[in-house]
């Protein structure tokens, strides 16, 4: 069942409690918070995760994913919201680690937590089905309560203090994800070097490198390269593009350079990698 958007505002939506057992792979343009009660398999970017107990799943725009369950119907509650809604209250939702790039997105929960979490999702559904006063604020608060309920199960939490301390790191990852989420055959990768990102962030390349090395243990170049490989693998596994099209989208001057880069990073060629996933 899909309930209507908030009146006159395309900011939040609700889906549940039963939906199709198979959702095909694709990119999504919304944030989603999902309570899944079935046994299912989730393909999230390059990762395949088997759900064998209740879990809450957090999905960001631009990240491809798919659901598959052998059960007739997928029992789930899902709240969907867009960027405008996520930016409310000084980006309070996006400050949580579950919405940060590279952080844990699938949080397994205990059976005793289910009634409380289901209650939150049902409250969201009820609010969105009416012309409730301060509906957006109430839905926003309920999403925060859902996150707080699962945070003890999540090993990494970003609070206001640490977010401020590592703001350059977070801004870098935000720029990185924003740029990679736009890639297609008409919009190839334009920002490929540490210098490109340091210019966008208005800092010296060496300073950016030091901050990232301290917060992640990796250099700017390594982080960019890893994201290129991750995106390449997404294209190889889940698109019908040929190697030349993928090479162009990722900003390589020719396919030969892309093949050399990919093999150096992974030990195999793009073509061999694609065959493994057929």
TrEMBL record:
Gene Ontology MF, one: DNA-binding transcription factor activity
Keyword vocabulary terms for this entry: DNA-binding, Transcription, Transcription regulation
Domain HTH araC/xylS-type: 170-276
Keyword DNA-binding carried by entry: yes
One Pfam family matching this protein: HTH_18
Signal peptide: none
Record InterPro entries: Homeodomain-like_sf, HTH_AraC, Tscrpt_reg_AraC-type_HTH
Protein name in the entry: Helix-turn-helix domain-containing protein
Record lineage: Bacteria, Pseudomonadati, Bacteroidota, Flavobacteriia, Flavobacteriales
